[in-house]
Hints:
By secondary structure, this protein is of the alpha+beta class. 16% of the residues lie in helices and 53% in strands.
Amino acid sequence: MSRRSGFTGLALALSASLMLGGARPARAQQSTVDFTISGTSTIRGWTCNAKGTMAVTRGSGAAAPGFPNGVQTAIVTVPLKEFRCPEDEMTQHLNDAMKSDKFSEVVFRLQKYTMAGTQVTASGTLTVTGVTQPVEVPIALKESPQGVELSGSTRLDMTKFGVDPPVVMLGMLKVGPQIRLEFKGLVGK
């Protein structure tokens, strides 16, 4: 190969990579999100905690606090094995009910969002035990020196996701189907 054709090939490769570089999708920022789920039973209320991850790609959406160009995509993933309850037995019942041996995570995928001040209504799909359902989740956004703080809560009926609420102690303890999901996290700058 001649020096000239080698240079021409390199120039074409660089030109192509520069042109494609502008067409590449933006990279998602990974953040940690803290989750609390709580519910009731015939004996007492219960609460469990977990850490999940959120991948946010900025751009191409309505402006939001801390996101002047909006949000292109957001995916929240919570590994079921991350949930911790006050008692190991409760954690096991949660994992059994959520079929964590077969379905290892809960996933929310943002489809769209609407803004009202600093309040966002995120619409998307939530997948639990392999069942995907549409959900709307209210989220509060607040800019901080570290990035954008987000928090929110919603109620879910777990039976709509194929989860049978646990029944233990020969039926004396029955967990209610409604849960409250609370979360908070930070998307860095």
